[in-house]
Amino acid sequence: VAIQKSLVLYMHTLSLLAGDERYDLSGRIDELGHGLSATTDSGLQQRHIAAYAGLTRLLTRVITSRYQSQYVETMVRDGDADVQALIEAMIALTRLYEKANENEQKTVLGSFNAEIPMANRNADRMLVMLAKVHLQNKTAEYKLIDRRYKLAQQGLTKVALGHQKMRENMAQLSSAEMR
């Protein structure tokens, strides 16, 4: 669970860092513009204030986008080995849980398969019927759990490959693609 939380925190941080609003100073720039508009007796017109806010917004976006891209690239490049190792650990743990589930399945279904044929008295017919229904339900449950383990492993593999591809292609990504 700690491994997963660490990986989720990394991915969340990366997505925030690469996001559109990370270095968005529009709110503060708009506040400055509103502060200027309050002094209309100075001769400033609304178009002057809008131009000031627009140009300031453009400058901050241009200046900060370079840093933002550098930080994202550094995080992806420097974090890749650790991300790959954590995903590898999560896949290994998923396989361990899958094996434990497989052993439990063999034990539980094996006991049903061994005991049901032994109950051949007429008095046990209702019990046998209930046991067969329970056996069917347990079989379906184990199939569903097996499928979930397979999907988890596939998902983790896709994340690992995606992060690796992103690291390999960082130089070719535009700012929009990075987000």
- Following the backbone from N to C, one meets helices and strands in this order, namely HHHHH
Number of E-type strands: 0
Main β sheet profile: none
Low-confidence stretches: none
Summarize the structure in words.
The chain is elongated, with a radius of gyration of 30 Å. Helix 2 (26-37) runs antiparallel to helix 3 (46-115) and helix 3 (46-115) runs antiparallel to helix 4 (125-168). Helices cover 82% and strands 0% of the residues. It has helices spanning 2-18, 26-37, 46-115, 125-168, 175-178. The protein starts with a helix and ends with a helix. It is mostly helical. It is built from five helices and no strands. The model has no long low-confidence stretch (mean pLDDT 81).
Which helices and strands appear, and what pairs or packs with what?
Elements: H1 2-18, H2 26-37, H3 46-115, H4 125-168, H5 175-178
List keywords for this structure.
elongated
Summarize the structure.
The chain has 179 residues and is mostly helical. Helix content is 82%, strand content 0%.
